[in-house]
Design brief:
Helices cover 14% and strands 31% of the residues. By secondary structure, it is α/β, with parallel strands linked by helices.
Length: 316
């Protein structure tokens, strides 16, 4: 009986996918002896082809069904979590079908979802009613992303995916939006001899028009695309923007009077102390003035050992 229940849990947490082998990482909250919630370390499930998912998590599978559940390798113990709150799907360049995607989104407790390196053209989150964080990374064929159903979404990141239009009008609880493309790096400061922690995308590949909700909670925007302007007039709570040096921030005069001087802007990683401001009767355009700094260079490594090695070289 216990073994059967354990395997049911594995099947549900392992999200069954079709052709090929996929990596799935799942996090689930637990409680310690003092009833305090915490997240255990990351688990990796390797799920091979011809697998199958049982939607009724409480039903015990019969022996014939259990025979279909072969090929699951678990790098760390499952810890009896049949319905994870977080799933990270790394497709390793393989195709993901809409049916396979629906099995992931249908998880009742799913709050965080990351889809990486997947060959997929469309993603719809109509059933992701509890999803709070969505990350799309390196999905080079993704053209349509529908997040209207994810009304609890607080954080959205789309990196290196050719989504030309992003409609966020229904996502009124958003607090942070990131749309960025190209090669990621950080700035290395030769004066301080340290690498920055803020990702920069100085050579963007894709365009993406964003339609913000009329009322939203967005406080931070990361926008590295080939577009030359972004309209933030609806983002009344916006406090920080990271963008390409060639991009302009567009807003109405009312927004600028209330938020213009409070807004912190980084252009290609360089904080702007003064902005170029152009106005007409109703519109204000803000553009970066300082886009070069001889003490800062792009650095493409994230290994701390490499950073320390660079610091030693420049210090010596």
């Amino acid at each position: 009986m216990k073994k059967a229940l354990f395997v049911v849990g594995l099947l549900c947490a392992g999200i069954i996918l079709g052709a090929g082998e996929h990596k799935i990482y799942a996090h689930a909250s637990r409680k310690d002896a003092n009833e305090k919630s915490y997240l255990p370390s990351k688990y990796c499930y390797r799920v091979k082809e011809n697998m199958f998912v049982k939607k009724d998590y409480e039903e015990i599978l019969n022996p014939e069904e259990l025979q279909d559940a072969k090929g699951i390798e678990i790098q760390k113990s499952f810890m009896n979590h049949s319905d994870p709150t977080r799933v990270v799907l790394d497709a390793d360049g393989r195709k993901i079908s809409q049916n396979q995607l629906k099995k992931i989104i249908a998880l009742n407790k799913l709050k965080e979802l990351s889809i990486e390196n997947a060959d997929i053209q469309e993603i719809s989150l109509s059933q992701a009613v509890k999803l709070e964080t969505l990350t799309i990374r390196n999905c080079m064929h993704l053209e349509r992303l529908d997040v209207k159903g994810a009304k609890q979404l607080k954080k959205l990141a789309v990196e290196n995916a050719p989504v030309k239009k992003l409609n966020l009008e229904k996502n009124k609880k958003l607090e942070e939006v990131s749309v960025q493309s190209g090669l990621s790096c950080v700035l290395f400061d030769f004066t301080k001899q340290e690498a920055g922690k803020i990702p920069v995308f100085p050579w963007s590949d894709y365009e993406c028009k964003i339609q913000f909700p009329k009322k939203n909670r967005i406080v931070k925007l990361n926008y590295f695309t080939t577009d030359h302007e972004i309209d933030v007039s609806r983002c009344r709570n916006l406090k920080e923007v990271h963008m390409s040096k060639d991009c302009k921030i567009k807003a109405d005069n009312q927004w600028y009077k209330k938020n213009g001087k409070k807004l912190v802007i980084y252009a290609d990683g360089i904080r702007q102390k003064k902005l170029s401001v152009k106005r007409n009767k109703s519109i204000v355009l803000l553009k970066a003035r300082k886009v070069k700094n001889k003490n800062l260079q792009y650095y493409f490594g994230e290994d701390e050992e490499i950073v320390r090695h660079l610091c030693t070289i420049f210090a010596g």
